[in-house]
């Protein structure tokens, strides 16, 4: 199907442009919250459905694995079929899947519904951003809108446990899914009223073989991390997964090299700045999800805290991220990515190390400052990582680079959940503090890796002014 170019209507007023931003930011709030809001509810879900900790890891990971796998293809589909159309499809799929999650009678049904939620979320994340960019023709206004966008996404990820804890305390664990429904309905009504349709001037072709192979690779890698401790790392099923994942990865590389319009431009990884930035995106979200999940299990499973109390304990993390995310964007736009990346690496490293000697009994004097440090590190990390990824690229390839870093963030979330769950699954309450030590060392190691990303950012040659770099950090 030929792609037609639709531009923003001339009569699109300032009020309507910012209404478009608000609607799209609302969808991102849902996507970010659903990545982490379920973490604090895992113990309650386990009690409600009668399942253990290890099986529960699939509840958040079914969502993040599918979301990570489909992000790039969803953006290409929207460019071809119409961004508003695909955005509305995403809202409907996300809403229906949320209802299915809320009424799920078993763990299997819940995991399946979470996977469908991931499909819907994949049609919201990159598509909503493209709608915002299309609605903001003025570069300065667009950069300001993208800064707000990045802040909303970072805050939603960090605030998920707090919101989840409050909902579960008031209405039970199913409420973390029911709450999506009125928001989805409102977003659908507002989208029909305010959001204009748009398509890319030249739509990319869908890469179905690459999409299938990428999904197989990501899914199998996460599956092995989750199930490896149970089935044995050297068991025949584990070896079968290793072989299939390696074959799928080799097939993915071969397919992508031959396609004129590949799902993922592998040539980008030849640039050290881009490759390290992608790994940095994985590392940051591994650190965040490990921190949130270890905290949830330590406080709730280990010491009987309520979901609200455990979520409230992570409030310093959310506050640190909320304050530092917009500051990081301004620093990256004015001085480049290196300075905020150094801040992010330092705060994440110190925060992780301060919890390595976690006491058997919770001590808020130890926990709260550490969570604040981790939140500050997370807030400083996001904008400069994307800035580093796109630095030196022509505008036509910056969008692809940003989409890959968005995928890397979701892969990091899935890996973090699998690793944290594997560390403490089937560990008694008395042993959780000791069992979580490798997890906090991993958080610190992720922080140290950001110093490598900062070095690569210094090596990357800037090619655009600050305003353009700020706009490029949109994903």
Automatic annotation (TrEMBL):
Superkingdom field: Bacteria
InterPro entries: EmrB-like (IPR004638), MFS (IPR011701), MFS_dom (IPR020846), MFS_trans_sf (IPR036259), Sugar_transporter_CS (IPR005829)
Signal peptide region: none
CDD domains to which the protein is assigned, alphabetical: MFS_MMR_MDR_like
Topological relation to the membrane, as annotated: Multi-pass membrane protein
GO molecular function, one term: transmembrane transporter activity
Matching Pfam families: MFS_1
TM annotation in the entry: 18-42, 62-78, 90-113, 119-136, 148-171, 177-196, 208-226, 238-255, 276-299, 305-328, 340-356, 368-390, 411-433, 439-457
One GO CC term on file: plasma membrane
Keywords: Cell membrane, Membrane, Transmembrane, Transmembrane helix, Transport
PROSITE patterns registered for this protein in UniProt: MFS, SUGAR_TRANSPORT_1
Stretches assigned to the Major facilitator superfamily (MFS) profile domain: 20-462
Keyword Transmembrane helix part of the UniProt annotation: yes
Cellular compartments annotated: Cell membrane
Stated family: Belongs to the major facilitator superfamily. EmrB family.
Entry protein name: Drug resistance transporter, EmrB/QacA subfamily
